[in-house]
Amino acid sequence: xxxxxxxxxxxxxxxxxxxxxxxxxxxxxxxxxxxxxxxxxxxxxxxxxxxxxxxxxxxxxxxxxxxxxxxxxxxxxxxxxxxxxxxxxxxxxxxxxxxxxxxxxxxxxxxxxxxxxxxxxxxxxxxxxxxxxxxxxxxxxxxxxxxxxxxxxxxxxxxxxxxxxxxxxxxxxxxxxxxxxxxxxxxxxxxxxxxxxxxxxxxxxxxxxxxxxxxxxxxxxxxxxxxxxxxxxxxxxxxxxxxxxxxxxxxxxxxxxxxxxxxxxx
Length: 266
Prior knowledge:
By secondary structure, this protein is α/β, with parallel strands linked by helices. The protein has a single domain, classed as 3-Layer(aba) Sandwich (Rossmann fold). It has helices spanning 41-48, 74-80, 102-112, 118-131, 148-159, 178-195, 206-212, 230-235, 240-248, 260-265; strands at residues 3-11, 16-25, 30-34, 57-64, 67-68, 85-88, 166-170, 198-203, 215-220, 223-229. The strands form two sheets. Strands 6-7-8-3-9-10 form a six-stranded mixed beta sheet, sandwiched between helices. Strands 2-1-4-5 form a four-stranded antiparallel beta sheet.
């Protein structure tokens, strides 16, 4: 077991937003958390790394390798984020400061986590960029000089730089076109295979769930209404809300969308 969320609730002054959610992610899982906007998916994922706004209160436990993350101090959780638990956000541009070159972000990230040798930091950064199909020259460019797909891949490379055990990816392809989105997902899948990391994947796209996930949970109004293996839920959904989501989703083809294979090869 890599992560165990145990009866986590998130509330503000007026209401409970996430209500006693429990789920377990094991080593090597691609765990999809599925639900409509406003269901509480992102807030739940942010609670893992203590990234919630101060006005929200969290109850329950989040065990990462038997360590309750919600009980860690600010200093302790900062050491763990990035090295052991990494985030990739929908707003991939937010991972980079516009007036700093891509390489400077990688260099600072490594320096903060104890890499004192500048030569080694450069080598690590270039290997990370190349692992997601980006050329060395992009190290010296500014974020605005990269395409959306390239910048998202750079964000993935930065998140996976220290080979974290758990990667939390929140709607990471929403702002990308279908080709760029597919490339990003393939890169993430490739890196997962290479590093053996677990992935908590926040999404509302059932095609992504079918293609990549092995486990999933359905979230509605702050609660988990159904969870289990991908094939069991997709082929034999039990909860009425799950049935409605699947029925209203685009056709769940196992392959790529029409014409995408051809574009990917070009």
